[in-house]
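tool=predict chain=A
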Amino acid sequence: MQPFCYLVCLFHWLFKIPYLDYEHTHRDIVENCKLGNRPAQFQLYQLYSAAMYNICLRMLRNPMEAEDLLQNSFVDVFSKLHTFRFESTIGAWIKRIVVNNCINHLKKRRLEFEELDDRVTGISDSDTFPREETGLTVEIIKRAVQELPDGYRVVFSLYLMEGYDHKEIGEILGISEATSKSQYSRAKRKLREILQATPLESPN
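tool=predict ok
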């Protein structure tokens, strides 16, 4: 049996989730962007657009919506850049704008979160999956995640893929920390059910 944390490694490896350079402020680029320097703005866009698009796609599931939201988010980035004071890294600041825009977009689709249910709070990161899941492919996992209900998928993505803790997720989504934990537990349980019901692809 493989622990659930095995899937954490799979997500980062199979999805090629980039570990953004949150230690670098790119101060020179940012200061030039604030002055309206177009080459600097393009450079900042190049540095972060791919990773931010992946965030949009994971949360929205629709490539066209993800692309539109990415472009709108960078419009917000450049219009609000004068407020950035290097209290965090520029990557983390941009990411927060993108995530907030994704959440606002999903709320228009009546994004719902189920309240805490004691029956599912016992699910932990050590919960197990069938041994055969070591044969999971990128497409199988992607399809499984896409099948999660919006509320589950958003919390799952924010926690597992974007690195937010449940307190931060609660603040972002306007829900309690307990509800965030419950959603994550429910998402894991649902993902387990989906993967167990999905035939593994035969090796060539």
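The two ends are 24 Å apart (CA to CA). The longest strand covers residues 2-3.
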